[in-house]
Amino acid sequence: MLLITGGAGFIGSNFVVDWLSAREEPVIVVDALTYAGSVQNLASVSPTDALVFVKGDVCDRPLIASLCAKYRPRAILHFAAESHVDRSIHGPGEFVRTNVTGTFELLEAARAYWKGINESERSSFRFLHVSTDEVYGALGDSDAPFTESSAYAPNSPYAATKAASDHLVRAYFHTYGLPTLTTNCSNNFGPYQFPEKLIPILILNALDERPLPVYGDGCNVRDWLFVADHCRGIATVLEHGVVGETYNIGARCEKSNLEIAHTVCSMLDALAPRGRGHYSDLMTFVADRPGHDRRYAIDPSKMESNLNWRPLETFESALRKTIVWYLKNIPWANEVSDREWTDLHYGAESKVVAAQ
């Protein structure tokens, strides 16, 4: 059995659904069901004993300890995190609590459990920590992509708390011998992504005939990764990764925010045409995020050469699947959306600086 924290969130729920669709090994999901987590994300899982769901906080060490004692997981996969940079700028305290303190409490519970199991179980146990490329900071236009040996230089409260959690995981391996694995991924997109990130905001705002917000000049670059490919990468690291190692998971897919916006609009024009004009007519440039990192890019060579992992989707095929999924799941999107937040930070109140 696997114990998965944050398994009702975006990446975590995709991992759970993909895992259970391909394997018979059961999972126990622990999720606090904050704004970005929903049990609806797991609704496609067949109602069998393969999934146990527990509403709980990753900071609750006694709860994690009790679940480990009861279910005896062979691995803990740590997805739980506050993850949105904009929210971390406006309220960093929750990010420190969940991402730093939560990881510490989870590590302590895992260490106590690991020390108490038999030698065979101890040798096969893994603690897999899911992190982000943002811990490495920003790149210049001509800089080489981040590798696993890149220095940490986080620039946002979110990135700083994830960097701290990465360091804790590393320390527990080197100090206590806890068999850890860490993955640092590039920008994910796909089904069940909470509508506060760029791609779902663009899709849903377009369908509602609302402005499509693009920060600054739209030239900030991200390295994009389809969530299903990321989940396959995590499963590969879990099964074949070397204990104590870090693995960067990316798709070599650098695109500017402006390019993303135009591609989403073009695909929507074909899949769900407007009654008049094109979706790109709705694009609006808004005041830039404070301290907005200019470029991220990941070098996934270690995943490719050591673990024989590569993404199966192209950006275009993955984006089309994502848009089709949102078109088919508008009720889900409407139920989970936080329009007040979106309007405050990306709408009329966000100091529109230009439009085209």
Short summary:
The protein is an alpha/beta fold and 356 residues long. It has helices spanning 10-22, 61-71, 85-90, 92-116, 119-124, 157-176, 198-207, 227-240, 257-271, 301-307, 315-328, 330-336, 339-346, and strands spanning 2-5, 27-31, 51-55, 75-78, 126-132, 180-185, 187-189, 212-215, 221-226, 246-249, 254-256, 283-286, 352-355.
Give an overview of the whole structure:
- The chain is of the alpha/beta class and 356 residues long.
- The protein has a domain at 2-193 and 223-255 and 295-314: NAD(P)-binding Rossmann-like Domain (Rossmann fold, 3-Layer(aba) Sandwich), CATH 3.40.50.720.
- Helices cover 44% and strands 17% of the residues.
- The protein is built from 13 helices and 13 strands.
- The strands form three sheets. A seven-stranded parallel sheet has the order 3-2-1-4-5-6-10, sandwiched between helices. A three-stranded mixed sheet has the order 7-9-11.
- Helix 1 crosses helix 8, helix 2 (61-71) runs parallel beside helix 4 (92-116) and helix 7 runs parallel beside helix 9 (257-271).
- It is globular.
- The relative contact order is 0.13.
- The model is unreliable at 348-356 (pLDDT under 50).
